[in-house]
Amino acid sequence: MTLYLLTFILFAVGLYGVWTKRHLIRIILGLVIMETAMNLFLILVGYREDGVAPIITENSSNTAVMVDPIPQALVLTAIVIGLATTALLLAFSVRIYAKYQTLDLNKIRNLRG
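RESULT FIELD:
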């Protein structure tokens, strides 16, 4: 239960960074922190105490507690998608900085002419 609470706190820290900051890089870092918290939560959902890998062989017993492999596969996919979206957001930030010479959202909104 403590681990679930820690992932919620980590998610809240990322959400705080997204809501309160006006600097694009800090907003992106907040999104990355939120993504990491969700990945940790999904891994915790699939975890079983004293669980073994879900590989059935002739020597394995059917009564063994196995971990759920689906959240692990989902997290691997989420990591790849998160990396791609983070790279895209950083590329947008570089282009915005090249055009406006700032990453502050308030200043960018005022430049809309």
